[in-house]
Inverse folding.
């Protein structure tokens, strides 16, 4: 179960985000639109098992995604993923009011490390790792508003 510290202020306060009711969330601070759910999750509570994929497949699927009538979806940069980490919480380090169903697991970023590796952000504690591109990670897509 998620563990959150009652001390300090939230790094991702709910009022910073606008839920459009179509599966998209806008972040007023960053100017980004996020898919509320990970790929293969559904509904307002992001139910279902999210899809795991390799980095190259995730990059390809993101670029052809036409969710909620929008184009321009992509994998977020590592910095963009870090911007939605809730630093007061762990397991997962996410605001579950905004991003329900977020697992304590790694999500792909668009950042390459080298030929064989790319950066992933693990939402168990909000830490970044360089991992093999062939490995399976989850995807949360983003687009510029």
């Amino acid at each position: 179960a998620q563990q959150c510290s009652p001390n300090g202020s939230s790094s991702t306060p709910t009022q910073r985000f606008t839920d459009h009711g179509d599966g998209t969330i806008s972040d007023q601070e960053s100017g980004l639109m996020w898919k509320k759910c990970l790929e293969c999750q559904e509904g307002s509570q992001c139910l279902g098992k999210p899809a795991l994929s390799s980095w190259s497949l995730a990059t390809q699927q993101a670029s052809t995604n036409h969710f909620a009538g929008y184009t321009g979806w992509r994998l977020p940069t590592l910095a963009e993923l870090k911007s939605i980490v809730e630093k007061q919480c762990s397991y997962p380090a996410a605001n579950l009011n905004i991003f329900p169903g977020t697992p304590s697991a790694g999500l792909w970023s668009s950042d390459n490390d080298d030929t064989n590796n790319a950066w992933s952000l693990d939402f168990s504690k909000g830490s970044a790792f360089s991992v093999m591109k062939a490995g399976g990670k989850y995807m949360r897509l983003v687009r510029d508003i």
Observations:
- Strands lie at 3-4, 17-19, 24-27, 32-35, 89-90, 106-112, 117-122, 127-132, 142-144.
- Residues 55-63 form the longest helix (9 residues).
- The mean pLDDT is 96.
